[in-house]
Design goal:
This protein is of the alpha/beta class and 330 residues long. 45% of the residues lie in helices and 15% in strands.
């Protein structure tokens, strides 16, 4: 059974309700029809009848709950709740109403906050900031999390490395240039996410252009400090570094470059030093190795709110919906 088949199986065992606010995107409508046909999750779609009709032509979304923000009986109460949540920031009723009617991601987050839905998936035709800003303002950070970060779940075909070709790449979607403390927190959150979603023990490599002191640079020092912080704060996880990519995942290279490491050569969670490296890395593997790439999957938010790459397919969206549903089970 493949990774995503197992995720879908788990989603079906305890069905959750996921909101899709991008009713203007045909890929989202196609994905919704597939999710509903396979009984993976309950789906709420936000949009006007005109938006729904224009994007859903040819796709069966009859089992979805459609919410028109302009006419729904939920809207007024959700606006009032948003005003209450953001009153300390000076949000007025009129401003809240404008947000809810013009930016469906705010409406989606309020549905999650009010308990009408368990999670949300967006980003097919909106930027990461458009997806995450409402989530951070409304859902907020999980009390146990130090920060919100994002990862891609990569499934590489015919690959003996990682966990049968499955990896987490972090942070590949949100934190631009994390310092050592943030890198350590990203590593811990990613290890937890890997254990949850892949159902295998996380082995975390902090990546660098240096392996165990082979190069000297401030960028290397940042990673070395992150490893030290992570090992002290999160001893429950296997973590090591700094490691070059080949030393992290290839046993033969690890033997010569990092012989005393219990992670080197066997890493399945790859922590990149910054967003440039992480984002470039995931796209290289996705396009050149023809890997499945699910994400950006967010971690650290109080409810599962997940982003999509704007280059996603409908099957990618189905996968992220299933992952979001599994996250919502815990």
């Amino acid at each position: 059974m493949s990774f995503i088949e197992r995720i879908i199986e788990r989603a079906k065992e305890d069905k959750k309700t996921i909101v899709l606010p991008e009713s203007m995107d045909k890929r989202v409508m196609e994905a919704a029809s597939k999710v509903l046909a396979n009984d993976i999750a309950n789906i709420i779609i936000i949009g006007t009848p005109e938006e729904i009709e224009a994007s859903s032509n040819g796709f069966d979304i009859s089992k979805a709950t459609i919410i028109n923000p302009y006419t729904s009986e939920l809207t007024e109460n959700l606006i009032l709740q948003l005003v209450e949540l953001r009153k300390n920031k000076g949000l007025t009723y009129e401003d809240a109403k404008k947000l809810m009617l013009e930016d469906y991601m705010y409406y989606a987050c309020m549905l999650v906050k009010a308990g009408y839905a368990d999670g949300c998936v967006s980003g097919a035709c909106h930027s990461t900031s458009n997806t995450l800003r409402p989530a951070l303002q409304i859902i907020k950070t999980k009390p146990t999390a130090e920060l919100v970060s994002a990862f891609f779940l990569m499934v590489v075909p015919n690959c003996e490395y990682g966990s049968n070709g499955t990896f987490i790449f972090a942070d590949a979607g949100l934190e631009q240039n994390p310092d050592s403390n943030k890198l350590a927190a990203i590593a811990a959150s990613s290890a937890e996410s890997f254990n949850l979603l892949v159902e295998d023990e996380a082995r975390v490599a902090f990546l660098s252009h240096s392996t165990m002191g082979s190069a000297k640079h401030d960028d290397v020092d940042k990673v070395v400090a992150a490893v030290s912080i992570a090992k002290e704060k999160y001893p429950q996880y296997k973590m090591d570094g700094e490691l070059q990519l080949d030393a992290a995942i290839i046993p033969e290279v690890a033997i010569s470059k990092a012989p005393n490491s219990d992670v080197a050569g066997h890493a399945n969670v790859l922590v990149f030093p910054d967003l440039d490296a992480g984002n470039i890395g995931y796209k290289l593997v996705q396009r050149l190795a023809k890997a499945e790439a699910y994400g950006p999957i967010c971690q650290g938010i109080a409810a599962p709110i997940n982003d999509l790459s704007r280059g996603c397919s409908s099957d990618d969206i189905v996968g992220v919906v299933a992952i979001t549903a599994v996250q919502a089970q815990f």
